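S.,

Sequence below, as promised.
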Amino acid sequence: MRRTWAPRGQTPRLRHSYRHDRISAISAISVSPRRHRLGLYYQLYDHNIRRRDVCRFVSHLLRHLRGPLFLLWDNIATHRGEPVRRLRARHPRLHIVPLPAYAPELNPDEGVWRISKAHLANGQPEHLDRLWGDLTLALEELRDSPAKLRSCLHQSDLPPFLS
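The prediction came back faster than expected:
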């Protein structure tokens, strides 16, 4: 929810229903080692993300990005376990860099979701399909904006080697 406006003296009213529809998302910002070009990769799901979804997403990154792949990961349960260990064993160029627990300020991906949520703020899609489309549009606009992607890196408290 974001701040909004209303005529003076009239409290804005928001109507909503409690539904259990969901969109889960996974994303990654890539930084090319030589030219420092930025990219945004994401996938959306209509269910809670599982380990196999994470492995599928990382496999997608491995197909599209050349050279060593360093993933900065938080310690969420879907980032651990046997499927992830098998994936790491199959791909020696995949390197996992764990972020400290409870340190979202170090995760540049948090900036992706901050910007995307701001884009969606105060919207009221009637159907999940509309929300899916709005979220895709927000992510595509972010993907097309190197300045906004770079701001995601700068807002994190990571070392400046990624800037």
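The chain has one domain: 24-162.

Coffee later?
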